[in-house]
Amino acid sequence: MGKVTRRRYGAEFKAKVALEAIKGELTLAELSAKHGIHQTMIAAWKRQAIEGLASTFSGKAEAAVATGEAELTRLHAKIGQLVVERDFLAKASGRLSVERRRAMVDGSHPQLSIVRQCALLQISRSGRYYQPVGESEPTLALMRLIDEAFLDCPYYGSRQMMRHLHRLGHRVGRNRVVGLMRKMGLRAIYQKPNTSAPHPEHRVYPYLLRDLAIVRPNQVWCSDITYIPMRRGFLYLTAIMDWHSRRVLSWRLSNTMDLAFCTEALQEALALHGTPDIFNTDQRSQFTSLAFTQMLADANVRISMDGRGRWMDNVFIERLWRSLKYECVYLHAFETGLALHAGLRKWIGHYNTRRPHSSLGGQTPEEAYNEIGSTVSSLKLAA
């Protein structure tokens, strides 16, 4: 058996792939098939690129260049301490998933060999040579069936979902269903102990909407994330909605379930529509993160979070996902991220400006948000 050649990726190639991922025009499965790289590695490069851009503009790079001889002397004196910390971090990295640790291996590192990196990360070097493949057509078909069933029956857990798929003729095991539902971000609504927990280091805020009369726009905003199936892969969508008027204030697509597209949507909503009194979400790690909650705190917005497993606490945006998928996503089976973006923009524009709601007295969400419905009615009566 011949010697296996290690694939090394240069900085220019990584930057190119990361930029494509940031654009969000292709799913991770499509990028993986295009470049022959595992999806986890692409997601890691995207995250590193975003963090690198932030540090570029924060002045950290200039501070590092300006480090003087005194700083170097101090750093040399800490070599012994750093050796101890290195050993500690090597042990701590074992708590990360194998995929995340594999994505951390840098084949082009000038000082650490792949063998040494794998040893520090406590992973097998053979895993580096796995050839990635995109999601298969049968898998994507299963994910769509699960998504459709979950919209109708959000109380389905993995066991009930498995039985539902069996009735449709798909002989899949529970572990398979659990993995797909986790990938799609779906969780049954019933209460269950010690599950669907938020990030252990993030603060969870109390639910503030119980028995609260929501009677005006910008009194309460809400947000959520949903899975959007495509013909080849899938993307994630987040939206921010005004609770009273049901108007969609901002939205973003992403090929990874990261924090950036959530904070971008929040920034846009705050910039275009001011600030609400209360902002309500579920307990996802994206919404409990310090970056997200700090933006709300800086704007003097009170933070509210659903009870664990209680989809009814954020019911209106759940209804938005149902309408959006049945009336737009499932009807078109979009081929690319660009096509999906254009389709969502058209549907959300129609939903906001042309679709009347019975709960709003026949007004559209935009009319209810701008409180122009009563004025229009008065003018008609006067005429």
UniProtKB/TrEMBL annotation:
Cite a single GO MF annotation.
Answer: transposase activity
Q: Where does the record place the Integrase catalytic domain?
A: 213-373
**Stored SUPFAM superfamilies:** Ribonuclease H-like (SSF53098), TrpR-like (SSF48295)
User: Mind telling me which InterPro entries this protein's record contains?
Assistant: HTH-like_dom, Integrase_cat-core, RNaseH-like_sf, RNaseH_sf, Transpos_IS3, Transposase_8, Transposase_IS3/IS150/IS904, Trp_repressor/repl_initiator
Q: Kindly list the biological process annotations in GO that this record carries.
A: DNA integration; DNA transposition
Q: Which domain of life is it from?
A: Bacteria
Give the protein name, as stated in the record.
IS3 family transposase
Q: Which organism is it from?
A: Acidisoma cellulosilyticum
